[in-house]
Structure formats: C-alpha cells, structure tokens
Amino acid sequence: MIELAYLTDMNKVKALTDEVQNIIEGILHVLDSEYGTSRDKYEDDGGYVVVIEKEEDFQIIKDKIYIDCDSIIPEYVDKIVCSNDKTYTNSLILCNNEYAISLIIPMELLPQNLKDYIID
User: Fold this and answer.
1) How confident is the model over 4-28, as pLDDT tens digits?
2) Other C-beta atoms lying within 10 Å of the C-beta of residue 110
3) How far is CA 8 from the centre of its chain?
4) Fewer beta carbons under 10 A from the terminal one: N or C of the chain?
5) Per-residue model confidence as pLDDT tens digits over 30-70
C-alpha cells in the first residue's frame, strides 16, 4: 500500500504507468493548492491518495481508516485504462465535507461493491 498526500510524494509511484501517475498527480495538485503543503494528512482538511498493491491492503485500510471497500458507497469510481493494457480505478471516498480519500486500485483487485459503481 502506498500513501501519498503531497506532490512531493510522487516519487513513490514511479513504477506505475504514466496514466495512473497523471491521475494521482492531478489529485495531489488539487490537495496541495487548496489545502496547503504543510497539512497533516490524517488530521487536517483535504485528504490523501492510497494505492492498493495487494489484497491484504484492504484489511489495513479497514483497520486504519475504517473504510470497508466491500460496503462503502463511493462518490464515484473511474476507470484508468493504461497503454500497457492494464486497468486501474480511482474511487473517491468522501469522509466529510472537507476530507476525502482517493483509492487507486488495479481492476483485478477491485471489490465487487466498487465495480458496481463504475459507469461505462
């Protein structure tokens, strides 16, 4: 699992495709410009991005930030189709008016609950 809260964290996802990096960079740009670069990603307004890398990461998310991906209602789930034929998703989870978590998940790990929210 990779957590990113600021544009300066982009080096953590260099191994991901350009398409996924571009989505993450866009989210982090908004967070930095709207909520500042000195915010506490867990305590202050804004939120952060989580990249799911393996099945076990879902339990960490459930235990750490109380998001159960098998039952959560996302604001949206977007597909990220990559040039290497791999597909990821970006699921926006609103926690309150000023705090959200974007979950970047490879399609093969995406829980059925979140698949149901994809609009093709």
Assistant:
1) 999 999 999 999 999 999 999 999 9
2) 21
3) 16
4) C
5) 999 999 999 999 889 999 999 999 999 999 999 998 999 99
Give me Rg for the CA atoms of the chain. Answer: 13
Q: Tokens 């202050």 appear where?
A: 44
DSSP string, the chain: -EEE-SGGGGGGGTTS-HHHHHHHHHHHHHHHHHH-SS--TTTSSEEEEEE--STTHHHHHHHHH---TTT---SEEEEEE-TTS-EEEEEEEEEETTEEEEEEEEGGG--HHHHTTB--
Report the relative pairing of strands 46-51 and 2-4 from DSSP bridges: antiparallel
- Residue 40 tokens, joined: 């506490």
pLDDT at 65: 87
| Token code pair at residue 25 | 């960079």
Domain boundaries defined on the chain: 2-34+45-115
Q: Is the pTM of this model over 0.90?
A: yes
Q: Which amino acid is located at 13 in the chain?
A: V
Report the distance separating Cα 9 and Cα 27, nearest Å: 12
